[in-house]
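Example record

The entry below shows one chain as it appears in the dataset: sequence first, then structure tokens.
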Amino acid sequence: MDKRENFQKMLQEDKQEVMLMGDLVEKALSRSIEALKKRDLNLGHQIIADDARINEKRFEIEKKTIELIAAQHPVASELNAIVAILNIIIELERIGDYAAGIAKIVVMIGDESPLKPLIDIPRMCDITIEMIHNSLKSFIENDSKGAVQVIGMDEVVDSMYDQIFRELLTFMMTDPKTVNRATRLIWVAHNIERAADRATNICERVVYTVTGKMEEIGASKY
């Protein structure tokens, strides 16, 4: 196996590690909403503790990627993929932080009675998890068109966040006693919305890796 073939083999191994980290992050986000729906404090505490594993995974991949640069001396085109990995794992780590943040809110809420049925927030989370999964799929497959499609989904998440925010604001205006409960749900929705933004960032990095064009891509442009 020549040097370039060995590089590609090691790069593919790195990408698989990124996918494994993505799986950890997706599960953390999903479980955080499950904990919220069930008022499961034990699960909330577990998600907070598990965030350390996501952080460790990020640094494992970063270390391995830096070693890859040192050992293989990649050419310019190969560096694009390496830089993408280093950026993507940062985005994934932040999404993990959002999941842990939701879990902390679950612990804060405790056994408080729900302010309203949780329908929109779980749906918003499902779409965001789909965005994360497909953003990483587009990275593995060098699929810039798929990445742009994922970016378009962010508009849906933003609209859902606005709707949830307005609804919870109405609760607070109608009955000031609901302020604490409504505010905590707004925090949850905000964390999910930010996670979707991070998935969008991953997709923009994919587009750059494939096309060489670095730009902030808005859904309205496509």
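Notes for this example: The chain has one domain: 3-221. Helices lie at 3-38, 41-72, 76-109, 120-140, 144-174, 179-211.
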